[in-house]
Amino acid sequence: MNEFFEEGLAPQQCSMDREAAPVHSTGPRRGKELVVLGEDGTSAMLRSLARLDPPRDTPASAASGVRRGHSCGRKRVQAELEARLGVNVRGTTSPVTYRASVMLVAPHLAVANGASTYWERWLYARALAVRAGRRHMHQDASLVLHRILEQDLDVPASLIHIPVVQLSVKHAILLHVATALALAPDVLLIDNITASLDDGAAQRVRRAVQLHAERPGDNLSVVWASNSSAELRRLGLQSDFILHEARHEAMQRPPDHPHRLNQRDAAKKREPQSYEWFSSAAGRGRFEWLMGLAVTHAFLCQILLVSAAHVPASFGSSPVSSSSPISALWATAGEMFAFSTPSRAAVVDPTHPVNISFPSVLIAAGLLFITSILTYVLHLKLILTVIFAAVRCTVQLCLVGFVLIYIIRINTPLLTIGYCCMMIAAAGAETVQRLQYSYKMLPLHILGCQLLASCVSIVFALFIVTGVGIDAQYMIPMYGMLLGNSLTGMTVSLNTLLAEFAEHKANIEAFTCLGATRFEATRGIVARAVTMGLTPSLNQMSVAGLVAIPGMMTGQILGGTAPEQAAFYQIMIMFLIGSTSIVSVSLVNIVAVTVLINADHIILDEKITRTEKGPSWIEKAGHAVTRIFRGEGEAAPIPTSET
User: Fold this and answer.
1) Percent of the chain with pLDDT over 90
2) Which of 323, 373, 388, 520 would be a feasible disulfide site paired with 516, CB 3.0-4.6 Å?
3) Which H or E run includes 416?
């Protein structure tokens, strides 16, 4: 090995201002061992050599003679490794073929549970190697894997059938090394794989790798990388390159990267507990005010209920002149309370709906407010959230009811389509607001997927199923139900998918480093995300009519429609909801995978940012309208500690 390092190498200093000689790669050179020592940057360099990260500005022509053990920067060391190994990271070779010949072995890939067992991972990796043109992967390759496990690494072969989550770190690493050796790549990149192993296991790994590197039949080139000189001495290795990285790898990530955010959150002061929210005098005052309001509201609701139960049938007749204001007020009060009297309830006409007055809505709100006190008892800190949601629901539905009166009365296609466009914009904003992670173009992708799926379904329903065309009375309610259900499905699905990219990236890289494409590597994750996104719609279809009567059927029955017609309408809308959810959820996951994994099958997790849980879109719109009416223009930036 020493002859390889010293042969043809001039004792040049690692100076970046020297003119480097061009390097011409003629294919991987096999049977070599290179050792890199560096506190920071070794993992990033090996990932770049394996083409798991986007290539940096490190041309292969930058390689020049580097003396053994000389301290160099990452660019020079990587260029030198490319030259000595005969690989070209920026070549025209397909990433799938390249990763089948240049393979990374790392601890985080060993414990990744993308596949349930190592046997499944082995079968998948062998199929990828055969597809990439690795002709040596014949049917007896599994026997080679068993031989490496039992003879070279002294590991029971039965461990490959045990789920990865049940394996110890030691056994997972040994199985990972055995799988990589059995695949017989041209170059094996070993990233600090023995740091968590005992002396015996580390020496077995060292002997197994050395045996395969020197064996004439399946010799390979190996790059050992470690951040500890003691670890190299334990393995009997001497550093050929000392990597000197100016900045830590983690500091090069953007400030909104999920890993940076997790570190930042861990350094922050702990958040106050739920019982500390009312520890101050102001907090106790707010709580006393809320409790007093709840008791008063409950008392008034009870008075209204008792009064409504004892209203006589002639309550609407006025004892004074019918033209006086008191008479009008008396008649209004009679209409307000008479809907719940036993005498009126006994003669309700089933073909005409029973109108509900605003005080009746307040009675229902009182019940919600009283039960929300339970969230404070359980220290959930949700009482203000419940109040805000209830107020927002009341305001929005009242405004919608007021606006729909005129839209349905006018009933023009332009006005109806415009209102539906406003609905889909609000649905897209709500979906993004509910996500834990996001990326730059996600709002447009959500909007496009929702628009495509919902438009196809609503056109099919209006022009083919019902034949009513663009009619506001039919289009707006059905379109709202389609958007509402697809919003829920896309939120659940995207939360699952983006959390997997941000928090469990190794589960995807465990397949991409073997030569899998982006859609092959994320097939299981996308299937799980789509399944979770479609579960609410499928459950709703399963229990409809048996456990619960859906909303559209309930509304039509209360509105006086015949139950059989209401059932047919509900069946139709359930089928439309199912088709819309399937298309929108599947499409948005495919688009997200395409954005987060580029055409070279490299995971771009730096695009993922944690969603800021600030004011909602409706609050921002309200503040903007307020500033416009006040004539304030743009809002001043919020001062920070840095300014």
Assistant:
1) 24
2) 520
3) helix 413-434
Domain boundary among 379, 410, 441: 410
Q: pTM score, two decimals? A: 0.71
Q: Mark whether 183 and 303 lie in a shared domain.
A: no
Among 384, 410, 436, the domain boundary falls at 410
Residue type, 113: N
Amino acid at 144: V
220 with 323, same domain: the answer is no
Least confident of 143-157, 190-204, 270-284, 552-566: 270-284
| Segments forming the whole domain that contains residue 525 | 413-633
**Quick one: pLDDT at residue 250?**
41
Where b means 16+ CB within 10 Å and e means fewer, 138-175 reads eeebbebbeebbeebbebebebbebebeebeeebbbbb
Quickly tell me which residue has 């223009």 as its tokens: 633
- Residue 199, pLDDT above cutoff 50: yes
Listed in sequence order, the residues at least 6 apart from 530 whose beta carbon sits closer than 8 Å to its beta carbon are 493, 585, 586, 589
Domain check: are 492 and 478 in the same one?
yes
Q: Of the spans 2-16, 99-113, 606-620, which averages the highest pLDDT?
A: 99-113
Are the CB atoms for 541 and 466 separated by under 8 Å?
A: no
Which structure tokens are listed for 19? Answer: 């003119």
Coil, helix or strand for 619?
helix
Find tokens 């289009």 and name the residue.
475
Say if CB 109 and CB 50 are below 8 A apart: no
| Residue pointed to by tokens 């049938």 | 313
Whether residues 519 and 420 share a domain: the answer is yes
**Pairing mode, strands 437-438 and 241-243:** unpaired
pLDDT band at 162 (very low <50, low <70, confident <90, very high): very high
Residue whose structure tokens are 């996951």? 589
Task: State the total domains in the chain.
Answer: 3
Using one digit for the tens of pLDDT, what is the confidence trace for 205-245?
A: 999 998 888 876 666 889 999 888 899 899 988 888 887 65
Other beta carbons within 10 Å of 531:
14
Label residue 554 by pLDDT band (50, 70, 90). Answer: confident
Query: Does any domain span residue 276?
Result: no
Q: Which residues lie across from 104 on neighbouring strands?
A: 189
On whether both 98 and 223 belong to a single domain, the answer is yes
Q: Which residues, including other chains, have CB under 8 Å from residue 407's CB and lie 6 or more apart?
A: 415, 416, 419, 472, 476
CA 353 to chain CA centroid, nearest Å = 44
- Do 486 and 399 lie in one domain? The reply is no
The sign of the CA dihedral 10, 16, 21, 27 is: positive
Q: At what angle do helices 551-558 and 472-503 cross, to 10 degrees?
A: 160
> Which residue has better confidence, 127 or 28?
127
